Amino acid sequence: MLGHSHATSGALAWAGAAAALPLSILTFPVAQAGHIGTVDLVMGTFLTAGAALLPDADHPSGTISHVLGPVSHAACKVISEVSGGHRHATHSFAFVIAVTAGTWAGEHWLHRWFTLALVFFLLALAVRALNLCPPGDGIRSYGTIVILAGAGTFAMDQWISDKPSWLPFAVGLGSLAHLAGDCLTDRGCRLFWPFKLRTRIPLVDRTGNKLETWILSPLFVLGTCALLWYTIIHHP
How far from the centroid of its chain's Cα atoms is residue 229's Cα? Predict the structure, then answer.
């Protein structure tokens, strides 16, 4: 699936989880009662949209590869080599668990600097995937991404806590939404990596086809907006 489809599906997953699940699940292992606040709800939407691009860190030609120019491109090439290529280790349940646990550990051991760095990176991914920057892989593109992600991080810095208890869930959920999307294609994913079994339900026969571009992605956006509205109205 295309980057914007992954991002919008991640946003939809977060909005749906926030509307349907108790706060104790969204903030696990921290036990909290009640509902997530409106500010955190909105921040989580954008960050989960960015997190939905993380599994494609194994794709040197993918959306994530160009998000920070030569730096991200080089990192993706290394990750691709280490993980066995596209749709191998990073497209598995093991990866989802790793990034979720890594986010929790980073928050608790490195504190606010880790949180803000992760916020910046996830916002950069969301900006790129949602086509909020000039196309291409030149400085015009990633320079705009850096500026917009930096501005977004500065804004969130005024509201986000040092260790937002919902952030690991958002990162894991976004990654899981990515795997679900790729499993709808013919190639599928090795969800149970390192085992070679591939999981696939080939509903999308070609990346970027009309079903994905004109039906699925718009429905993801409309569904996200509807769920956010529902959650804010019913759980202010």
Answer: 21
pLDDT (tens digit per residue) in 146-181: 999 999 999 999 999 899 999 999 999 999 999 999
d(CA 121, CA 146): 9
Residue 6, Cβ neighbours under 10 Å: how many?
33
Beta bridge partners of 185: 204
pLDDT (tens digit, 9 = 90+) per residue, 173-229? 999 999 999 998 888 999 999 999 999 988 776 666 677 777 888 899 999 999 999
In angstroms, the CA 50 to CA 31 distance is 26
User: Do 175 and 55 touch, CB atoms closer than 8 A?
Assistant: yes
pTM, entire model: 0.93
